[in-house]
C-alpha cells in the first residue's frame, strides 16, 4: 500500500504528487475533475512506474493507493495507509499561522509564527531518497520576536511537523532531515482524541464529516500542539552565534568579577586611607606633646641654673 502517488493530467500531462485521501476526496466529491487524472506509483530505484488506484477502507477509516490488477507490479511495496485522523490533523495544522508548540520531552513551550501562504501538506524532499513532510512551514521572516530571530538563524526558515497516529516517524527520515538542517516536530494524536472526534469508529466519507474533523483538530491545536523534536539541527551560523554569545557572556562575567574585585580593593584602600589619616592625626598629637615636653624640659633646666631669675620672670609676666 502507498499513501502517495504521481497524478498525471490526461490533457495537459502536468504532474504533481497527491495523497490517497486527497485522491479519494476528489473522487467522492469532484468526480469530473477526478476523471482527468491517472495515478502512478514511481519506483525510484528501478526508474519504473505502475498504475495505482485510490482505495478507502471504511472499517479502519484508511485510504491508500492499490496497484492496478493489470500491472506487472512488485508486491508489498510501501507502508500502511493513511487514517482519517492523520489526514484531518495535517490539514488542520496547515491552516495555522501561529504555532504554540508544547515540547513534552524538554518541558518547554515555543511560539512560532509562520507564513500561512507557504504552508503545505506532503512537501517533497529529494535527498538520496525521497521523503514527504506531513506539514511544511516557512517561518515568518518579518516577525521581530526575539525567539523567532533565533530560530530563523537556527533552521533557515524551514519547519516540519509530522503527525503520529499509529506509527512513529522512521529513524532514517529523521536522520536525513537533521543532516539537511530541517527540524521535525512530531505530534502525537492519542486514541481518546480519535474517540472524542468520532474518528475511531467506521465513518462514511462526506464533506461535512471531513470538514468537521479538520475544524475540531484545528481548535485543539490552537490550544497547544503537543509533541517532541525528533530532528533539531543547528546551522553553522547559529552555532557560531552561540559560540560568540558564550564568549561575550564569559567576557561579561569576567568583567563583572574584575569590577567587583576593583570595588572591593577600592573599599579596602579607602578604609586604609581613613586609618592612615587617623594615625597621622595621632602622630601629630604625639609630636605636639613631645614638643611641649621638650619646652618643659628646657624650662626646668633653666630653672635649675637660675632659680631666682626664673621666679622673677614668672612674676613679671603675671
Can you give a write-up of this model?
This protein has 318 residues and is an alpha+beta fold. The chain has two domains: 4-80, no CATH class; 84-234, no CATH class. It has nine helices and 13 strands. The protein has helices spanning 20-29, 31-34, 84-94, 146-155, 171-179, 191-196, 207-223, 236-305, 307-317, and strands at residues 4-9, 15-19, 37-43, 48-57, 62-67, 82-83, 98-103, 108-113, 120-126, 130-138, 158-164, 184-188, 225-231. The model has no long low-confidence stretch (mean pLDDT 86).
Number of strands: 13
Overall pLDDT metric:
86
Number of helices: 9
Helix/strand structural class:
alpha+beta
Report the major sheet.
7 strands, mixed
SSE string? EEHHEEEEHEEEEHEHEHHEHH
Gross morphology is rod-shaped
* Radius of gyration from CA coordinates: 42 Å
Question: Any low-confidence stretches, pLDDT <50, length ≥5?
Answer: none
Strand content: 25-35%
Assembly state: single chain
Major β-sheet strand ordering: 8-7-13-12-11-10-9
Report the end-to-end length measured between terminal Cα atoms. Answer: 133 Å
Amino acid at each position: 500500500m502507498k499513501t502517495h502517488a504521481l497524478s498525471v493530467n490526461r490533457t495537459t500531462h502536468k504532474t504533481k504528487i497527491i495523497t490517497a485521501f486527497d485522491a479519494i476526496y476528489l473522487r467522492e466529491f469532484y468526480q469530473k475533475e477526478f476523471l482527468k487524472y491517472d495515478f502512478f506509483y514511481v519506483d525510484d530505484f528501478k526508474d519504473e512506474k505502475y498504475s495505482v488506484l485510490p482505495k478507502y477502507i471504511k472499517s479502519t477509516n484508511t485510504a491508500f493507493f492499490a496497484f492496478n490488477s493489470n500491472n506487472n507490479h512488485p508486491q508489498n511495496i510501501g507502508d500502511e495507509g493513511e487514517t482519517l485522523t492523520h489526514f484531518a490533523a495535517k490539514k488542520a495544522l496547515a491552516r495555522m499561522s501561529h504555532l504554540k508548540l508544547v515540547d513534552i520531552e524538554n518541558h518547554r513551550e515555543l511560539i512560532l509564527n509562520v507564513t500561512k501562504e507557504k504552508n503545505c501538506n506532503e512537501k517533497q524532499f529529494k535527498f538520496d531518497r525521497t521523503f514527504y513532510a506531513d506539514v511544511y512551514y516557512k517561518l515568518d521572516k518579518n516577525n521581530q520576536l526575539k525567539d523567532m530571530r533565533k530560530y530563523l538563524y537556527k533552521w533557515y526558515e524551514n519547519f516540519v511537523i509530522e503527525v503520529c497516529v499509529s506509527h512513529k516517524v522512521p529513524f532514517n527520515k529523521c536522520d536525513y532531515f537533521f543532516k539537511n538542517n530541517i527540524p521535525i516536530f512530531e505530534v502525537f494524536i492519542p486514541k481518546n482524541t480519535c474517540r472524542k472526534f468520532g474518528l475511531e469508529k467506521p465513518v462514511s466519507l462526506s464533506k461535512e464529516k471531513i470538514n468537521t474533523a479538520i475544524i475540531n483538530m484545528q481548535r485543539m491545536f490552537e490550544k497547544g500542539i503537543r509533541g517532541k523534536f525528533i530532528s533539531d539541527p543547528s546551522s553553522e551560523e547559529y552555532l557560531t552565534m552561540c559560540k560568540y554569545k558564550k564568549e561575550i557572556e564569559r567576557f561579561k562575567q569576567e568583567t563583572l568579577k574584575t569590577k567587583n574585585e576593583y570595588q572591593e580593593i577600592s573599599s579596602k584602600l579607602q578604609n586604609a586611607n581613613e586609618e592612615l589619616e587617623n594615625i597621622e592625626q595621632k602622630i601629630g598629637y604625639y609630636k605636639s606633646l613631645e614638643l611641649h615636653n621638650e619646652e618643659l624640659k628646657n624650662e626646668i633646666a633653666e630653672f635649675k641654673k637660675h632659680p631666682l631669675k626664673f621666679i622673677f620672670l614668672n612674676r613679671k609676666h603675671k
